[in-house]
Amino acid sequence: MSMLLTFLQNAIGQGISILFGASGEILTEKSGNLNLGIPGIMYMGGIAGLMAAFFYEKVSGNPNAFVGLVISLLASLLVSAFGGLIYSVLTISLRANQNVVGLALTTFGVGFGNFFGGSISKLAGGVGQISVKTTASAYRAVLPGLSNIPVVGKLLFSYGFLTYLSIVTAIFLTYFLKHTRKGLNLRSIGEDPSTADAAGIHVSRYKYIATISGAAIAGLGGLYFVMEYLGGTWTNNGFGDRGWLAIALVILALWKPVNAIWGSFLFGGLYILYIYMPGLNRATQELCKMLPYVVTIIVLIFTSKRNKHENQPPASLGQAYFREER
Amino acid sequence: GCGSSNKGGNADNTPAAPSGTETDSEAIPEGSAADIKVGIIYIGDENEGYTAAHMEGIKVMATSLGLSSDQVIEKTHIGEDESAYDAIVDLAEQGCNIVFANSFGHEDYMIQAAQEFTDVQFAHATGFQAASSGLPNMHNYFTAVYESRYVSGVVAGLKLNDMITKGEITAEEAKMGYVGAYPYAEVVSGFTAFYLGAKSVCPSVTMEVQYTNSWADMTAENEVAKQLIANGAKLISQHADTTGAPTAAEDAKVPVVGYNVDMTLVAPNTALTSATINWGPYYTYAVKSVIDGTAIAADWSKGYVDGAVAISPINESVAAEGTADKVAEVEAALKAGTLKVFDTSTFTVNGSTLEELIASNADYEKYSANVSDGYFHESEVISSPAFGIIIDGITEK
Amino acid sequence: MEQANAIELKNVTKRFGEVIANDNINLSVRKGEILSILGENGSGKTTLMNMLSGIYFPEQGQIFINGKEVTIRSPKDSFALGIGMIHQHFKLINILTAAENIILGLPGKERLKMDQIMKDINELIHTYGFDLNPSQKIYDMSVSQKQTVEIIKVLYRGADILILDEPTAVLTPQETKKLFDVLRNMRKAGKSIIIITHKLHEVLELSDRVTVLRKGKYIGTVNTAKATAESLTEMMVGEKVTLDIDRSEPVKPEKRIEMRGITCKTKEGIKILNQTSFTANSGEILGVAGIAGSGQKELLEAIAGLVQIDSGEILYFAPDGSTEKISDMKPAQIRDLKICLSFVPEDRLGMGLVGSMDLADNMMLRSYREGRKFFLNRKKPKDLAADIVNQLDVKTPGVHTPVRRLSGGNVQKVLVGREIAASPTVLMVAYPVRGLDINSSYTIYNLLNQQKEKGVAVICVGEDLDVLIDLCDRILVLNSGKVSGIVDARKTTKEELGLLMTAERKGGHASEQRRSK
Amino acid sequence: MSKDAVNKELFVRVSKRDSISQKKAWGIRFAGIALSLIVCALVIVAIVNENPIRVYMGIINGAIGAKRRFWVTIREALTLLIIAVGLTPAFKMKFWNIGAEGQILMGGTVTAAMMIYFGDVMPNWLLLIVIFIASSLAGLLWGLLPAVFKAYYNTNETLFTLMLNYVAMQIVTFCIVFWENPTGSNTVGIINGATAKGWFSKIFGLQYGLNIIVVLAVTLIVFLYMKHSKQGYEIAVVGESQNTARYAGINVKKVIIRTMMISGAVCGLAGSIIVSGASHTISTSTAGGRGFTAIIVAWMSKFNPLAMIGVSLFLVFMQQGSIQIASQYGLNTNASDIITGILIFFLIGSEFFISYKLDFRKKSKEVK
Ligand SMILES: Nc1ncnc2c1ncn2[C@@H]1O[C@H](COP(=O)(O)OP(=O)(O)OP(=O)(O)O)[C@@H](O)[C@H]1O
Ligand SMILES: Nc1ncnc2c1ncn2[C@@H]1O[C@H](COP(=O)(O)OP(=O)(O)OP(=O)(O)O)[C@@H](O)[C@H]1O
Ligand SMILES: [Mg+2]
Ligand SMILES: [Mg+2]
Predict the structure, then answer these.
(1) What are all long-range contacts of C471-474, with beta carbons under 8 Å and residues at least 24 apart?
(2) Are C79 and A200 a contacting pair at CB < 8 A?
(3) Does chain B reach chain A with at least 3 CB pairs under 8 Å?
(4) Which of A68, A84, A164, C275 could form a disulfide with A212 if both were Cys (CB 3.0 to 4.6 A apart)?
C-alpha cells in the first residue's frame, strides 16, 4: 500500500514538468507555431530560477523564502519568455523555418542551462554545492493540515504550489481556448492565419503573445524540476528528455490541455515503473524503460484511427504567414 | 626498458621535454617542471562529482609541482568513443608529456594512442588493461576508496545504533538502502565495504541495493532512493554521481551517506558524511615521475596511508554522539594496517566463508589470487576493484 | 453640396515583384449604388479590392472613404471604415461553427456567450431571409452555405460598403437570384456595393455602373443601362470579339463510356451516386447539370478511378471495338490499359496541378511514368508547356514559374491545355470556366468543341445552364445522385432543366451538406 | 518620446523582393555570418574577457589547426552530411521524420553486432558489405514502421518517429548488457581492436577515405534520385498534395512507405559509418544528437545537397572550434552549444532579407 502510494505520488511528481511543457506548447501550437525549442526553453526556465534564487540567497545574508520564491519565479518566467521571444522574432517577423529555429533553440537552451549551471556551481564552490534551500523550501511548502491526512493527504496534498499551478494552468488554458473571444481568435490563427487576418485579428501580435506566454509556461516546468523536485540544485542534463516528452504529450492530448493532465501522470508513472516492478533484471529493466514510448505509440495508433476534424493539429501549424503571399 | 628512441612522428612539436622514461632521467636537469605539459580528458565537467574530484586532484598536483595554467590542458565532456581517441591524440600532438583519462570507456582509445605515441605517458583511471597490454607507457590508477567507504559505513552504523537506542527503530528494522550505478565490481566492492563498516558497529544491519544503470542520472537516483525508503530503508547511501539520492533522503528525513562530495548543503538535516577520493596524490606522483624521469607503476591504488581517500567532514548535528572518536580510531587502524576491510572472518557468502567457497566452488576460483592471510586483497593485483561478490546481509534488487 | 462618394481611389498602384497588378487606378463608388468591376483574369480586380480590405497596401495613390483620405493598413482599419469584403476564396475556418466564424475578431465581452450571439445571428438570418444553421460546422457545409456565412459575417459587422469578389462563381442560378435579392435590399438601405463577376448577364441585371480594368489599368466606367454584353467585352478585351459558341453536329457518335447502376457512398454512408446509369458517346459533348453537390464531381471521379465504387460497373468501349471494365480500377491501372481518359477536376490547385511546381513539371504530372527509364525526361514537358503558353495565351513570366503564382484563369488554361494535349478519347471537365473571364471562357468552349470534332467523348459538368444549352449535345441532369433525365440540349429549356434539377428533392439536402469544399 | 516623434513614427512595410542577384544574396548571407560572429564574439568576450580576434584564431586552430583536427572536422561533417541527405526525401514528402537518431542507432547497433559476431568468419571486404547492407536494413525497418502507420492510418509521424528514438536507445542499452566488457561496466569498448575486422580500411592512404567515398556517393545518388528520377518526382507531388498524387495515378501509400524506407536506410547506413568508420564501438550516444542537427542542415540548405556540404562543414567547423576555445580558456564546453545556437539564429534570420525587402515610410495619416 505504502509502496503504491509512493509510486503514485512520484508518478505525479514526474509528470508535472511535462504537463507545464505540454500546456505551454499547446498554447504555442494553437497560434500555428510548432516550437521545437521547448526542451531548450525548459532548461532556460530552470536555470534562470535557480540562478536568481542563488544570487539572492548569496547577496542577502538572511534570505526570506517568499522573496526568493518571487524573484526566482520572475526570473524563470522572464528568461523562458526571452527564449520564446527569440523564436517569435525569427519565425514570425523574419519568417524563418520553424523547425530549424526550434531545434537550434533547443541546442541553445540546453547549452545555456548547462553553461550557467556549471558557472554557478563554480561560484558555489564545486559540484553539489549549489543549494537554495530557503527558496526551495517555499516551493516545497505543503499545506500543513491537509497533507497530514492519511493516504488522501499524501496523494493529493503533499505537493508544492507549482504542482497545483500546473493543473490550474491546464484547466484555465482549456477554458481560455474554448470559451473566450481571444481563445477563439487564437484558434482561428492556428487554423488559417489569412482568414483570421481578414477578420481583423492582429495575427502577429497574437502569435507573439501566445508563443511567448507558452514559452513562459513551459519554462515553469524547468523551474518545477529544479526547485520542487530536486529541492534547489542542478546537474547537467539532469532534466533529460522531458521537453521532448512534453511535445509528444501535446499530440497525445489532441491539443487539449485538460487531456494533458492525465497524460502527464501516465507518462510520469511509466517513466519510473521499472523501479517499482519486481522481478526485473538489468536487461529486462531496460526493456521496461521502453514502456512510456511504446505505450505512446500504441495510443497514437489507436487515436489516429478515429480521424475527427476536431482532433487534428492546427491546420497552419509549422507555416510562416505573410499577408501578401499567395 | 622503454622505447624512448622510438619517437612518434608527431611529437616533433614537443618542447625539449623529458619523455618520461627511466633511461632519460639522468639526462634531465632539475627544474624541468617548467617544460612539462600535462593533458587530461574528462568524461564530464565540474558539475558532476566524479569529474570534479579529478579536477580538484589536478589542481592539487599543479600547485604542489608549481605548474602554470598553460602547462595543463583539460578537455571536458569527452565521450567514450572515437572522440576520446581524437582528444588524447590531440593532447599528445600538442606536446603533452603525460595524458590522463578519467572514465572507464576511455581505456581502449588510450591504449590505441599509447601504441602510436610511445614517448608520451598515458594513465587511465578505473581501467584494468595497462599491465596486460604490455605497453610500458600505459598505466592504470585507482584508489582504495573501499577504505573510506568502510569508514563512512561505520558512521552509518553508529547512526543506526543511535536510532535503535532512541527507540526510533528496532534492531531488526536496521536496514540500509544503497543506490548503485551498475552491478559492477567497482560498485559491489564499494557497497560491500560500506556494509561491512556499518556491520562492524551494528551487527543486525542489513542492506538492499538497487541500481540505476547509469553513472549519473539525478532523477533515477532520486527515484530509486525514494523506492528504497518506501521499502523500509532507514538510511541511504550511494555509488552514483549526483545529489539525487541525498535530495530524496532529505525529503523523507532519512539519514544519508554520500559519495564524492560533501552533501550537507543539499541535505543539511540528514547528510552524515560522504566517502571521497583525493586524486591529488596520484596525479602528483605520476607527473612528478615524468619530471624526474622515473617509472610510473602500471597499477596504482592507494588509500588512507597516502591520503588518497577520506571522508568529508562529519555533520555533527546529524551523526551519533562519539562518531568522530570512533572514526579516528578506525582510520588509524586502517593506516596501521591492523584493520583489513575485507577481513574474510567478518562476512559469509551463502553461509560459507570465502575461503571455503574458493576451495569448493569453481565460480569463485578466480578470487584465489586475491585471498590470503585472512583477507581479500582488493586493488592489489590490479588497481581497479575486483571484489564482485554479494555477501550475506546484502540483497540486490 | 454634392454628396461625397463612398469610395474614391486615386492613382493607386500595386506591384508584386515584377508584376504590376494595378497601375494608376482611379475608381469611385457612390453611396447607395452597386458597382460592377469587370476585367479579364489577372487584370487586377482582386488586388484592387484587397487594398480596400487592408490585405494589401498600395505602393502609390490615395484612398478616400466618404470624402476623407485614409490609410488602410490592416483589415481592422478597413472594418473600422465600414468596409466588408467577401473574398474570392472563402475566408472561413473549417473546424469552427458558422457563428464562431461570424464573430471572429470582433470586440466584445471576453467570455463568449454563445446563446446571445446565436440569437443575434438568427435575427439577422431572419431579416434577410437566409437559410442557415449557425451552430453547423463549416466543414459540414455546402459551398452556398459557406457563401451565406460570409455574407452574414459582413452584415453582422454592420458594414456600409460591401465588396463581393466573384460571389456567384460557385452558386446555382437559384442561389444567385437569392443573393441578388439580398444585395438589392441592401442597396435600398443605402449601402454601397462593389461586385466582381465574370458573368455579363449578372452585371447587366444587377449593377448601376460598371468599371472595367484591363491588364492592371483602368479603362473606364459606364452606366449599366447604356451597356451591352458586346460593348463591355470590347472594353475588357480591347477589341471586338464574338460571343457565339459554334456548335457542330455530332460526327458518327459511338458508345465510349457506359455507366451501369453505379452507387457510391461517402464515409458517413450517404449515397452520393445512386444507381446512376448513362452512356457517353464519341464526337459529342454530354453536359452534366444539377444543383451543387448532387454527385457531379463523383460522377467524373468514379470514371477516373478516384472514388470507391460500391456497386455497378463502368465500361469503356475502345475505338478499335474492344471493351474494358474500368470500374474498380485505379487511375494508373486504367492508363496501363492505354485508355486515355483526360480529366480536368474542379479543384485545380488541390488536385489537378501542383502549385509549387513550375509549368513544365506540371505538364508531366499524368505522363511522367511513360517509358521504362528510371529517370525523368524533362525536355518533352518543357516543350509542351511552351506550346500551351503560346497557343492558349497563358499570362506567365515563363515556363519555370510556379503555377501557384498564376491567376485563376491562367491556371485553368494550363490544366485544360495539358489534358487536351494527351490526345484523349474521353475528356471530362468539371466547371471548366469557373472564375474565368469571358474571353478565356470562350477559348475553353472552343477547345471543347474542337475536341468533340476530333471524335473525343466530352463530358462537361457545368453550372451555367445557358452555356450548357448552347454548348452541349445532350444534358444529363443529376438530382441527389440519381439521373433525373437526359435531354437533348438543342430542344430543352432552362426551365425544364431547372425542374429536373430540383424535382422531389428528397435527401438532396443531406448530400449537399456533406460536400466539403 | 516627444509628441513630434510620435507623429513621424516610422512605418515599415515588408514586401517580397522581385528577384535578387546571386551576388547580393550571398552578400546578405555573409553579412549574416559576420553579424553572428560579432555577436558570438561579444558573448565570448563577456564570458572570458579575451581579445575576440584571438578567440577566433582559436576557433580556426581548433577546427583545422592540425592535420588530425582537420580530419576530425571532415569526418564529422561527412557524418552530418549523410544524415541530412538521408532526411531529405522524407522531408521533401512533408513526412516529419525526426527519428533519424533512432535510425542511426539501429544501424549502428546492427553494425556492432555484425562486427562482434562475424568478425572472425569472413574477410573484411565482405564483412563491410554485409555491414552496409545490414545497417541499411535496420534503419529501413526503423523508417518503415512509422511509414506504414502513416500510410494506412494517417498516424502522426512526428511523434511516432520521436518515440522510436527512445525505443532504439533502450534497445542499444539492452544490447550493451550482453556485449559489455567487462560485465557490469556498461561499455562495449573498441570492437575487434586487435583485428580491426569490420573497420573501414584505409583508402589512398587516407584513414577516412572510405567515409568520403561512401558519403559523397550517397549524396550524389540521392541528389540525382530526388531531382531527376520518376520516384523523386512522385515524392515531390505527394509532399505537395496527396489528392493531386492520387489524381496523377500515384500510389500514395506505396510512395510514403518506399520513401521512408530509403530515408531510414540512408540514416541506418550513417550509423555504420559512425560505428565502422569512426568509433568502433556502440553506446547510447552513438547518434549524439546528430539526427536533430541534420534536420537543421537539411532545412537550412533548402534540401540542396550541395548547400548541405557547405552548411554541415560550417556547423562542424564552428563546433570543433568552440570545443577548442572552451578547453583553451577553461570555458565550460556547453558554451559551444550556445555559440552554435546563435550562429544558426543569425544565418536563418538573414534569409529573410534575401526574400523580402523593407520599405520605411512615414506614417502620413491616421485612420479615424
Ligand atoms: N493569446 C493571447 N493571450 C493573452 N493575451 C492576449 C492574447 N491575444 C491578445 N492578447 C492581449 O489582449 C489585448 C487585446 O487584443 P486584441 O487583439 O483584441 O487587440 P485590440 O485591443 O482589440 O486591438 P487594437 O489595440 O489593435 O485596437 C492585447 O493587449 C493583447 O496583448
Ligand atoms: N500575392 C500575389 N503575389 C504575386 N502576384 C500576385 C499576387 N496577387 C496577385 N498577383 C498577380 O497580380 C495580377 C492581378 O491579380 P488579381 O488576382 O488581382 O487578378 P483578378 O483580376 O482578380 O483575376 P481573376 O479574375 O482571375 O480573379 C496577376 O498577374 C497575378 O498573378
Ligand atoms: Mg480575382
Ligand atoms: Mg480568380
Answers:
(1) C471/C245, C471/C247, C471/C285, C471/C287, C471/C445, C472/C285, C472/C286, C472/C287, C473/C247, C473/C250, C473/C284, C473/C285, C473/C286, C474/C284, C474/C286, C474/C287
(2) yes
(3) yes
(4) A84
* Pairwise CB contact (< 8 Å): A297 & D335: no
* Cα C385 to middle of ligand 3, angstroms: 24
Atom of ligand 1 nearest to the CA of C107: 22
Q: What is the CATH number of domain C255-340+423-515?
A: 3.40.50.300
DSSP D12-75: EEEEE-S---HHHHHHHHHHHHHHHHHHHHHHHHHHH---HHHHHHHHHHHHHSSHHHHHHHHH
Among candidates A214, A175, A169, which has minimal Cα distance to A25? Answer: A214
- Whether the CB-CB separation of C2 and D2 falls below 8 Å is answered with no
Q: Which amino acid is at C26?
A: N
Instruction: Give which of C6, C15, C511 is closest to C265, Cα–Cα.
Output: C511
Assign domain C5-237 to its CATH architecture. 3-Layer(aba) Sandwich (3.40)
What structural domains and CATH numbers belong to chain D? Answer: 18-356 (1.10.3470)
3-state helix, strand, coil in chain D (%, to 5): 70, 5, 25
Q: Do C368 and D243 touch (CB under 8 A)?
A: no
| Residues with Cβ within 8 Å of residue A92, at least 6 apart in sequence | A33, A204, A207, A208, A211, A320, A321
Judged by a CB distance cut-off of 8 A, whether residue B224 touches chain A is yes
Q: CB distance from B260 to chain A under 8 Å? A: yes
Look at D365 and C71 and tell me if their CB atoms are within 8 Å.
yes
Number of domains in chain A: 1
Structural domain including A132 reads 3-311
Using the beta-carbon criterion (under 8 Å), do A127 and B211 form an inter-chain contact? no
Domain range summary for chain C, segments of one domain joined by +: 5-237, 255-340+423-515, 352-419
Residue D249 near chain C (CB below 8 Å): yes
Atom 4 in ligand 1: which residue has the minimum CA distance?
A: A209
CB contact at 8 A, D168 and D106 = yes
Q: How far apart are CA C450 and CA C461, in angstroms?
A: 17
CA of C88 to the centre of ligand 4 (A): 7
Radius of gyration over every alpha carbon of chain B, rounded to an integer in angstroms: 22
Q: What is the DSSP letter of A325?
A: -
Closest ligand 1 atom to the C-alpha of A31?
A: 1
Q: How far apart are CA D64 and CA D321, in angstroms?
A: 8
Please report, in tens digits, the pLDDT of each residue of chain B (397 residues total): 333 333 333 333 433 343 333 334 333 344 467 889 999 999 988 777 888 899 999 999 999 999 998 899 999 889 999 999 999 999 999 999 999 999 999 999 999 999 999 999 999 999 999 999 999 999 999 999 999 999 999 999 999 999 999 999 999 999 999 999 998 899 999 999 999 999 999 999 999 999 998 888 888 999 999 999 999 999 999 998 888 999 999 989 999 999 988 888 888 899 999 999 999 999 999 999 999 999 999 999 999 999 999 999 999 999 999 999 999 999 999 999 999 999 999 999 999 999 999 999 998 988 998 999 999 999 888 888 999 999 999 998 7
Closest Cα to atom 7, ligand 1: which residue?
A206
Which residues of chain D make contact with C14, given a CB cutoff of 8 A? none
Chain B nearest C-alpha distance from D123 (Å): 23
* C16 Cβ below 6 A of ligand 2: yes
Residues of chain C that touch chain A, judged by Cβ-Cβ distance less than 8 Å: 16, 53, 55-56, 74-76, 78-79, 85, 87, 91-96, 100, 103-112, 137, 139, 153, 404-405
pTM of the model: 0.88
Q: Which atom of ligand 2 is nearest to the CA of C56?
A: 1
Beta-ladder partners of B280: none
**A300 occurs within a structural domain:** yes
